[in-house]
Amino acid sequence: MQITPSPYIKSGLQVNRMIYLTLAALLLPSGAAVYFYGYRTLLVMVTCVAAGLLTEIASKKLRGRRFVMDGSAILISLLLALTLPPTIDLWIAAVGAIFGVGVVKEAFGGLGHYIFSPVMGARIFLGISFPAETSRFIEPAGFSGRIVGAESYLSEAFTWTGSKIDLYKDMFFGNTPGGMGETSALLILIAGVILIVLKLIDWRIPLAFIGTVAIINWALGEDPLFQVLAGGLLLAAFFIATDSVASPITRKGRIIFAVGCGVFTVIIRNYASAPEGVYYAVLLMNAAAPLIDRFVKQKPQGIDKITRGTDA
């Protein structure tokens, strides 16, 4: 959903319809998760969605608000599930969905009021609380087994014994260890293009986010294509950083926001102890979004004409 300064033009596309269209696009990476990692991934997804929905219903009741099925809890919970390892304990997945919906979303006022991305907030919470369980990735069905000494492509212990072309090919199609919905770059890109064509997200955010990561890694002598395809960058760039509630409202602001996400991703990945910097980068820039909105303002239409008329 895109939010810009006034004036506004009324559209027939309602918030809940936008959310359901986004969920439809997520069927692509969700299908890849089932294909590469088996039907247990469906249990993880269903567990997260059920826990998230029940949490939203309970939260609304505690706050004295009427529950409306807008799909936001489903979207948050499904996105969280797609960032998790396929073998994650179901109760841990449920705890993550409860935290994301109940604490990060509902405690701040619900849809349209939260400050941080509920998906990234829940993922970081699980990563800190259950570091071993949330970083234990498995090889997908049909994996060629050319990794030596690492469970994650972003681990310092990662070693690849095949050719670079084979590496890029596996990463592009999704035949790699990782978060169960993060590995297939092809399907995430197709889903992202669908969101852009339907004008559900602003293309500037994923372009600036991914481009910043690629350019800085190239300047540092790192492999930019590897860094773009590895981890949760693509899923976060198209589906999470584009959350209009926790991102700036102006076009310039969104570009600054996305560039900041890219910079923090590179810094954390290359120089911090956490191998996946995307989660922390998005959360940090969520905190900066109100400040960006304050200093990057768009002039209301007609302001120049009014000023010239006053001077005359």
Q: Which structural class is indicated by helix and strand composition?
A: mainly alpha
Unreliable residue stretches: 6-10
Q: Tally the helices: what do you get?
A: 14
What's the number of domains? Answer: 1
Return the string of H and E elements. HHHHHHEEHHHHHHHH
Radius of gyration: 20 Å
Give the C-level CATH assignment.
Mainly Alpha
Mean pLDDT over the residues = 86
Distance between the termini: 41 Å
Which architecture name does CATH use?
A: Orthogonal Bundle
The percent of residues in helical segments reads: 55-70%
Strand order of the biggest β-sheet: 1-2
Number of strands: 2
What is the topological layout?
Elements: H1 15-25, H2 27-37, H3 40-62, H4 72-82, H5 90-105, H6 118-129, E1 147-148, E2 159-160, H7 164-173, H8 185-197, H9 204-219, H10 224-229, H11 233-240, H12 251-271, H13 278-295, H14 303-311
Question: What does this 3D model show about the protein?
Answer:
The protein is mainly alpha-helical and 312 residues long. The protein has a single domain (15-295), classed as Orthogonal Bundle (Ammonium transporter fold), CATH 1.10.3430. 59% of the residues lie in helices and 1% in strands. It has 14 helices and two strands. Strands 1-2 form a two-stranded antiparallel ribbon. Residues 6-10 have low confidence and may be disordered.
List its salient traits:
Ammonium transporter fold, 14 helices, two-stranded antiparallel sheet, 1% strand, 312 residues, mainly alpha, 59% helix
Compact overview of the structure:
This protein is mainly alpha-helical and 312 residues long. The chain has helices at 15-25, 27-37, 40-62, 72-82, 90-105, 118-129, 164-173, 185-197, 204-219, 224-229, 233-240, 251-271, 278-295, 303-311; strands at 147-148, 159-160.
